[in-house]
Design goal:
Layout (H helix, E strand, L loop, with lengths): L5 E6 L8 H17 L3 E4 L14 H9 L6 E4 L2 E2 L5 H14 L4 E6 L4 H6 L7 H16 L22 E4 L3 H7 L2 E4 L8 H13 L10 E8 L4 H16 L11 H8 L2 E2 L2 H9 L9 E5 L7 H18 L13
Parallel strand pairs: 1-2, 1-10, 2-3, 3-5, 4-5, 5-6, 6-7, 7-8, 8-9, 8-10
Helix pairs in contact: 1-2, 1-11, 2-3, 3-5, 6-7, 10-11
């Protein structure tokens, strides 16, 4: 894959129910990941517990995590931008970036759940139009441009945050043109090699006009040992995606076939390593971000999965942890 990419994990903050423990567990998972040497941790936004995701306000939780960690980058994977007020998002993101000493990675997407768009008074069919409008307003604010005729500008200003924007979309030429990072994940309606083609299109379209390198965050679900609870979680996920018209592939009777279609890596460590090696080639500017939880995964199992990744999987792909300052080799 690469001699040195950044290693991260994604938590969708899944849980069977809402309770403070799910947020405390996520904070603990970030702390453990930092101790293991992970370079980044990412959280996903879910409104109204869609997909059993319990985190509607990712920047709030990341602010708490920022106070319990020191090094690990803090990513949003993703915030549903059409449902956000761009200037308010810029203000919140800037405060968090200052609190965390510049560790925020701001991942954005257009979203897809029609129920949430209705609740926010938005039209699902207009989400890409709204995304583009809101993105331009966000970029404008983060770029220190005047926001009023009198010259009001975003305060506080987080220098460099505008160069840490990531977009999750198949319209990769637009992402490259804007100089943003690309978030990509398996698409159940496309063959696995489609991800390689997507990344190649992005890199080929890159101009470098803003002085930053092309950068890819590859998100991949990884469950070393799926159990009965995991099976139920994934089947429930597929059923809901079907109900809102997002998952249009056939439902496989074979659970392994369903996992393959969803791009969820599982099985022996050697098999997982081989499958990861078949994906897009990652460089020193890229992230490999692995999701290790479903709704029923207890904290101890998520931690064990991170340990397996750190000890067995990531080193086999060429990754080595960044040593904290002052650590002797």
């Amino acid at each position: 894959m690469s001699s040195r990419f950044s290693l991260g994990f994604l938590s969708r903050v899944y849980s069977p129910g809402f309770e403070p423990k799910v947020y405390r567990d996520t904070v603990e998972l970030f702390k453990v990941a930092e101790e293991l040497g992970f370079d980044s941790g990412w959280v996903a936004q879910h409104h109204f517990a869609s997909e059993n995701g319990r985190l509607p306000s990712p920047l709030v939780l990341l602010a708490a995590i920022a106070q319990r960690t020191r090094r690990i980058s803090l990513g949003t994977g993703i915030i549903v931008l059409p449902q956000e007020a761009p200037l308010r998002l810029a203000e919140d993101a800037s405060v968090l970036d200052l609190l965390s000493n510049g560790r925020l990675e701001l991942g954005l997407g257009a979203g897809f759940d029609p129920d949430t768009f209705t609740a926010f008074g938005r039209e699902p069919e207009a989400r890409h139009r709204d995304y583009e409008q809101h993105l331009q307003q966000l970029i404008h604010a983060l770029g220190n441009a005047p926001l009023t005729d009198s010259g009001s500008r975003l305060l506080p200003r987080a220098a460099g945050l505008g160069q840490r924007i990531w977009e999750a979309t198949s319209r990769v030429e637009l992402v490259a043109e804007r100089g943003h990072g690309l978030i990509m994940a398996p698409n159940p309606h496309l063959p696995p090699e489609a991800g390689v083609e997507l990344v190649n299109r992005y890199r080929n379209a890159w101009t470098g006009d803003n002085g930053t390198p092309p950068r890819v965050t590859r998100v991949q679900a990884l469950i070393p040992n799926p159990d009965a609870a995991t099976r139920n979680d994934i089947q429930a996920y597929v059923q809901r995606q079907q109900s809102i018209g997002v998952y249009k592939a056939p439902v496989d009777d074979d659970f392994d076939a369903t996992l393959r279609r969803l791009g969820i890596l599982h099985g022996p460590v050697e098999q997982i390593i081989e499958q990861l090696q078949q994906g897009p080639r990652l460089t020193a500017n890229d992230h490999l971000v692995l999701q290790v939880q479903t709704a029923s995964t207890p904290l101890r199992e998520a931690i064990r999965a991170l340990e397996i990744i750190r000890e067995q999987i990531a080193p086999a792909l060429g990754w080595q942890p960044t040593l904290p300052q002052g650590t002797l080799t």
